[in-house]
């Protein structure tokens, strides 16, 4: 006696394979977009740290030399220049904003942060923005301390 089992062939249909491939493609695309944004976020974070370093350098130089020192910011060209250092240009796509004392503004796009021999400064704030991510650097007028704050 022979038993015949009603077996159906197992496997995936062409439609199921196509749907899975589309889902994989969408996920890879989303990961790629996410990595692109994280690179730009990394650039703005690194640029913020470079600006913070230039501010701290300028403050230290004022204290050590017992002379006022000015860090210059060019908003139009997106450059930062600390005394005695090479001019630093922000990466493409990063927007630069600044709030500083009126007497330190040389034009609408050129201004500075002045540091005094006692460590104090004219104070102010720098903003670096790319897409929706903003980093702010606050410079205290009394102590001259510069702090990085995520916006």
Helix and strand layout, with pairings?
Blueprint: H1 14-65, E1 69-74, E2 79-81, E3 88-89, E4 95-100, E5 110-115, E6 124-130, E7 133-139, E8 146-150
Antiparallel strand pairs: 1-2, 1-5, 2-3, 4-6, 6-7, 7-8
Describe the structure.
This protein is of the alpha+beta class. It has one domain (41-150): minor pseudopilin epsh fold. Helix content is 34%, strand content 28%. It contains one helix and eight strands. It has one helix spanning 14-65; strands at residues 69-74, 79-81, 88-89, 95-100, 110-115, 124-130, 133-139, 146-150. Strands 3-2-1-5 form a four-stranded antiparallel beta sheet. Strand 6 and strand 7 (133-139) form a beta hairpin. It is rod-shaped, with a radius of gyration of 27 Å. The mean pLDDT is 88.
Percent of residues in beta strands? 25-35%
Note the total helix count.
1
CATH class: Alpha Beta
CATH fold descriptor: minor pseudopilin epsh fold
Number of domains: 1
In angstroms, what is the radius of gyration? 27 Å
Task: List key phrases describing it.
4-stranded antiparallel sheet; alpha+beta; 151 residues; 1 helix; minor pseudopilin epsh fold; 34% helix
In short:
The protein has one helix and eight strands. It has 151 residues and is of the alpha+beta class.
């Amino acid at each position: 006696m022979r038993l015949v089992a009603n077996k159906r062939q197992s496997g995936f249909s062409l439609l199921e394979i196509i749907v899975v491939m589309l889902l994989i493609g969408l996920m890879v695309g989303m990961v790629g977009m996410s990595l692109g944004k994280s690179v730009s976020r990394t650039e703005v974070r690194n640029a913020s740290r470079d600006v913070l370093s230039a501010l701290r350098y300028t403050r230290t130089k004022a204290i050590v030399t017992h002379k006022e020192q000015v860090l210059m910011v060019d908003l139009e060209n997106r450059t930062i220049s600390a005394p005695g250092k090479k001019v630093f240009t922000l990466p493409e796509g990063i927007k630069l904003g600044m709030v500083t004392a009126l007497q330190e503004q040389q034009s609408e796009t050129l201004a500075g942060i002045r540091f005094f021999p006692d460590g104090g400064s004219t104070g102010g704030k720098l903003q670096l923005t790319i897409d929706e991510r903003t980093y702010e650097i606050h410079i205290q007028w009394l102590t001259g301390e510069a702090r990085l704050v995520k916006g």
